[in-house]
Structures are given as structure tokens and as C-alpha cells.
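We close this part of the discussion by returning to an individual protein. The sequence in question and its C-alpha cells are set out directly beneath this paragraph:
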Amino acid sequence: MLSYFVLCIVSATAANYVAQMNMLPMLNGANFKLWKENVKIVLGCMDLNNALRTKKPTFTQENPNTDKIEKWERSNCMCLMIIKRSVPEAFRGSIVETTDAKLFLKELEQYFARNEKAEIGQTLSKLINM
């Protein structure tokens, strides 16, 4: 009976994760700020945002922190998978491949900040030339 109960909780949690991930909009370049906000909300609701909030714990002989390290690594791995799932392959090819979710999000932010500035410059140039 207990194993059935645990199985129901696990499957309900998995279904909840999938439902929340499906709510994430696909990144298209014009919606970066909204996309980033939604990613942070979804990861927070799923309690997977530890890798985005904290630095990776270090292992020392005096204080092994193995539980913290495992939780951080799981959070980081899940964050990367969820973030990459909502980023089209064309954008991923332009971003430096990394194994750190926080760094990957920062790289995306820098990429889209540069593109946004270039678009603003082009628009201003067109207005001036008119």
C-alpha cells in the first residue's frame, strides 16, 4: 500500500513538472525578458532554482557537504535541461556551451542584450534617414 502511495506521488510530481514546463514560452528573441521571468518562476515553483540562487558548494575534508553538493548538481542539471528545452537550437548554437545553468542564463542574457541594442540602432538609423 505504501509503495503504491509513493508511486502516485512520484507520478503526480512528474506530471506537475511536465505541465509547468509546457507553460514556458519558446524563446524567440523578442520575448527574452518575459521568457527569463517565466523560467525563474517555473524553476522556483518546482524547487529547482538552487543552482541559480547559490554558488556550487565545494567539497572539503573537514566539511564534505555531500548532500548540498548533490542537491546543487541535481538542481543545476534540471535547470539546464528545462532552460535548453525552451531555447531553439538556432540560439543554442550562438551561445557558449556550459555545464553551469547560471552561467548559461547569463550568456543568453548577454546575447539578447547585444541583439536588442543592434536592433535599436538599426531602427534609429532608419528613422534618421527618413
Observations:
- Residues 1-12 have pLDDT under 50 and may be disordered.
- DSSP finds six helices and no strands in the chain.
- The helical segments are 2-22, 32-45, 50-53, 66-85, 89-92, 101-129.
- Residues 101-129 form the longest helix (29 residues).
